[in-house]
């Protein structure tokens, strides 16, 4: 497994990198035999350290966890514990989906745009009726079943996930509703 341990305006020493590799490696051994890579980013928010950990699994799914603590090792340990809990919760489903899927998850390329929230020159937008694009990026849309999409959204801690439905070959959306349930949007052709 390939590890990328970085810090935003923080010097990440060799001892912390070794701790991350050891602890995250032991968690991944329990739940996933073939993780591809892990990214751990440390940053500082006020007096607390923030740790964001993302692990890409060979099945195409991503597991993500984020934690805050007053010490940098504590922040990582809390994030690692959250990831352990997520993977433990989905262990059976991860293994079942992994066996049923003979090929890795297919990813389709798509454009992703960030639109300006507020604008100084409202008249300019009114004339063209086009929103101002702040950033344009390339993103990947996975081909998943609805169950895999819900699991991927839960593992990533995301409020919404856009995916290509394997069963119907259409673009679908799953999202977390305000009442705690999961919503699924399946447009008809």
Automatic annotation (TrEMBL):
GO terms for biological process: negative regulation of translational elongation. Residues 130-183 form the Sigma 54 modulation/S30EA ribosomal protein C-terminal domain. One of its GO terms (cellular component) is cytosolic small ribosomal subunit. Transmembrane segments: none annotated. Pfam families: Ribosom_S30AE_C (PF16321), Ribosomal_S30AE (PF02482). The keyword Ribosomal protein does not apply. GO terms for molecular function: ribosomal small subunit binding. The keyword 4Fe-4S does not apply. It is found in: Cytoplasm. It comes from the Bacteria. Keywords: Cytoplasm, Translation regulation. Interacts with 100S ribosomes. Belongs to the HPF/YfiA ribosome-associated protein family. Long HPF subfamily. Required for dimerization of active 70S ribosomes into 100S ribosomes in stationary phase; 100S ribosomes are translationally inactive and sometimes present during exponential growth. NCBIfam families: yfiA. This is Ribosome hibernation promoting factor.
């Amino acid at each position: 497994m390939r590890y990328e341990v970085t810090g935003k305006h923080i010097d990440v020493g060799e001892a912390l990198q070794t701790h991350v590799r050891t602890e995250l490696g032991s968690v991944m051994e329990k739940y996933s035999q073939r993780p591809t890579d892990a990214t751990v980013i440390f940053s500082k928010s006020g007096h607390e350290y923030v740790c964001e950990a993302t692990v890409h699994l060979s099945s195409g799914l991503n597991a993500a966890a984020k934690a805050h603590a007053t010490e940098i090792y504590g922040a990582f340990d809390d994030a690692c514990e959250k990831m352990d809990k997520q993977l433990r919760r989905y262990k059976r489903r991860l293994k079942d989906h992994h066996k049923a899927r003979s090929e890795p998850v297919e990813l389709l390329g798509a454009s992703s745009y960030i639109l300006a929230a507020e604008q100084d020159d409202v008249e300019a937008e009114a004339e063209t009726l086009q929103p101002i694009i702040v950033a344009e990026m390339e993103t990947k849309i996975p081909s998943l079943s609805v169950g895999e999409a819900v699991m991927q959204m839960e593992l990533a801690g995301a409020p919404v996930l856009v995916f290509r439905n394997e069963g119907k070959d259409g673009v679908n959306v799953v999202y977390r509703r305000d009442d705690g349930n999961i919503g699924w949007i399946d447009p008809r052709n």
